[in-house]
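Service request form, structural biology core

Requester: graduate student, group of Dr. S.
Request type: structure prediction, single chain
Budget code: on file
Notes: please return the result as structure tokens.

Sequence provided:
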Amino acid sequence: MAAVRFKEHYHYDIGSSSAARSTKEAAQQAMKYVENKLSNVNLESKEANESIDKMLAELDGCEIRTARFVPVEDSTETTPVYNNPKKEKIINWRDVRLGFVRPLDSKSKTFVGKMDTYQEVVSQMHSAAVLTGMTAETKIIGVADGGIGLSEELKRQFPSMQFILDKSHLKDHLYETAEALGINQKDRPGWVKPRVRAISDGNVEAVLKELEEENDKNPNKRLKRLIGYIKRFYDALDYDNFKSLGYPIGSGEIESAHKSIPQKRLKIPGASWNADSIDPMLALRILRADDWWEDFWNQRTESLLAA
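Core staff response, request fulfilled:
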């Protein structure tokens, strides 16, 4: 497709293999550009008068389909032309994590993303926050789901963070618990909504007490799990108060960004990717989203001319 579009625009045939090779090379360089951009920042070097008062940080993941080819076990079959051993396609789904930071009173975001651990991606978010104007005085508001280790890593790298659990994920947990308790579908909202309302009002302790009493009478694994979940996010559920402060209580911004940044290119119908190609291709998408595109290509052109 890239070769076809190149010919349409420039009336020159470069061939599909040349287009693929050039794209991979540019993507690798884009990944290095992003890494360099985010590695040369220092919070201590920021002056207080550059500080942003409050900053929003959101992080979420999506799964990208990957494929690798391995020799077929116990097979002597070979390919017809080159007589190579026959291979089978192994499909896996890999987690790609995307995050952004922005001043709370602005819509201008700086995105980061990798197929990597929370620690690595949050580290990139921290660097992006410094580039955006974060100092030691900046209040960070973090919004995300309840992924294991996610809130803990955000708070570790952003010590001043007020973490907010995405409200829809709390509701999902309550509905799943209602189902496990045997409450029929039409009655579940009547069980869930009063508890969500009470939690939002700041009455987390009262809801916990009620759920614990219910579990003492009729022990249930899913109910016990919900109690642990609420305790884990005890200080991240004061939704009415957060709203009054102008904080978001849902992670819709980063969920929408997943559709427009990684998924638009990496999750097209029927596509599977070599795992090693995901981060470089994602870097190209991030260059676009962060408005670093022209600077990257100017640097690349200067480097090629100097060679």
